[in-house]
Specification:
450 residues, alpha/beta, Rossmann fold, 7-stranded mixed β-sheet, 5-stranded mixed β-sheet
Length: 450
């Protein structure tokens, strides 16, 4: 590994020793880009790595709100505006009790690379709160969102920073957030948030985009390795939220058989193939648990989660799509997947595989579609939504889907090209990092020491 990379990693570890997720994300990227750094000694002179790994701005704020019983609660809000090198800050908001500064920084760091890979003019950011929307009423969520946006609105704008949704932030939350923004600003800045409802500036395909994009990338990766396809393949998908649901939908469209999905409590296994309409009913309408699937299909099996590892990774499958959350695939789970004959992993969530799990997959010759590349469809379609807002014009579902497909094809091509340039074989994890880093480094050099 490059001495410069080692020096920077040590400095980052010393400064951020209590932020494990952030350190993991930085280590994964810096180790893989070492071949590029070795070819460019000017990167050290210009402190490219030091500047790229330090966020431009971290905003932390108090979010007070009142529940339905009149009790006052206080949560913490974050916005990490990581890099505006190639466009306005862009990245989702996450509402989950696990949210802290380490997770926000890791997600923001990942976002700058992901957004660079799309080829679109968007920088990287991430934000959210340790507020847990589960078991909250609509009115409680509305009051929280209004309080959160009252502070956040000072730091965002269509040409400054454009948040979107993430875990815990869907169409309902985006609506409440945008309503408060519009009320405070007293103007229609449609491009300030993406993932909006179709009634007030949203884009068709945005709901489906991350899941669809993941499967488009997987299709290209399989095609490039033995001219394989999704047709006839067995697929397991962790999670049952937006990304998982629409990855399931597109995988089925392309001929795959999805046999398992999950939530934080456990997973369901249906050897006949998951009934996606029922999953949508449970998760999008009833906001229930995955176990409720048995109420509709009693022959299916429910496996409860009892430890760190999700039981879904013990199910035999050709393709595994982790679409739930970070670090959900441990080394132990990776070994079980490989033992059961998995041929490809597609990361729908952000950094869902622990570093040692990713390394094991690559050692075993398993194809890995890295999150930065494979789940970039959501932010790519968000950028398309921003363009439509600027034009005051709506594109059809077919138009946006075609654009999304083309973007994912190009992301795979740039990833594959980097692999070929640096003799990386099928290490698409390193290929994606190098392709994005190269673009960001050039932009950083061009703009001077800022």
């Amino acid at each position: 590994m490059s001495r410069y990379v080692e020096e920077v990693l040590q400095k980052i570890e010393d400064k951020n020793k209590y932020e494990p997720e952030y350190l993991q994300a930085v280590e994964e990227v810096l180790k893989t880009i070492a071949p590029v750094v070795d070819k460019h000694p000017e990167y050290k002179e210009l402190a490219i790595l030091e500047r790229m790994t330090e966020p431009e701005r971290i905003i932390t704020f108090r979010v007070p709100w009142v529940d339905d019983e009149g009790k006052i609660h206080v949560n913490r809000g974050f916005r990490v505006q990581y890099s505006g090198l190639i466009g306005p800050y862009k990245g989702g908001l996450r509402f989950d009790k696990s949210v802290n500064q380490s997770i926000m920084k890791f997600l923001g760091f990942e976002q700058i690379f992901k957004n660079a890979l799309t080829g679109l003019p968007i920088g990287g950011a991430k934000g959210g709160s340790d507020f847990d929307p589960k078991h909250k009423s609509d009115m409680e969520i509305m009051r929280f969102c209004q309080s959160f946006m009252t502070e956040l609105q000072r730091h965002i704008g269509p040409d400054v920073d454009v948040p979107a949704g993430d875990i815990g932030v869907g169409a309902r939350e985006i609506g409440y957030l945008y309503g408060q923004y519009r009320r405070i600003k007293d103007r229609y800045d449609g491009g300030v948030l993406t993932g909006k409802g179709l009634e007030y500036g949203g884009s068709l395909v945005r709901t489906e985009a991350t899941g669809y994009g993941l499967v488009y990338f997987m299709r290209e990766m399989l095609k490039a390795n033995g001219n394989q396809s999704l047709e006839g393949k067995t697929v397991t998908i962790s999670g049952s939220g937006n990304v998982a649901i629409y990855a399931c939908e597109k995988a089925r469209m392309l001929g795959a058989k999805v046999v398992a999905m999950s939530d934080s409590n456990g997973c369901i296994y249906d050897e006949n193939g998951i009934d996606l309409d029922i999953i949508k009913q449970i998760k999008e309408v009833e906001r229930g648990r995955i176990k409720d699937y048995l109420n509709y299909h009693s022959a299916a099996k429910y496996i409860e989660r009892t430890g760190e590892d999700s039981p879904i990774w013990e199910i035999k499958t050709d393709i595994a799509l982790p679409c739930a959350t970070q670090n959900e695939v441990t080394l132990n789970s990776a070994k079980k997947l490989v033992a059961n004959g998995v041929i490809a992993i597609g990361e729908g969530a952000n950094m869902p595989c622990k570093l040692e799990a990713t390394e094991y997959f690559l050692e075993q010759g398993v194809l890995v579609a890295p999150a930065k590349a494979a789940n970039a469809g959501g932010v790519a379609t968000s950028a398309i939504e921003m363009s439509q807002n600027s034009m005051r014009y709506y594109l059809s579902f077919e138009q946006v889907d075609k654009m999304l497909d083309a973007i994912m094809v190009n992301i795979f091509k740039s990833t594959e090209d980097a692999c070929k340039t640096y003799n990386l074989g099928i290490n698409y994890v390193a290929g994606a990092n190098i392709a994005a880093f190269t673009k960001l480094a050039k932009a950083m050099i061009a703009q001077g020491i800022i």
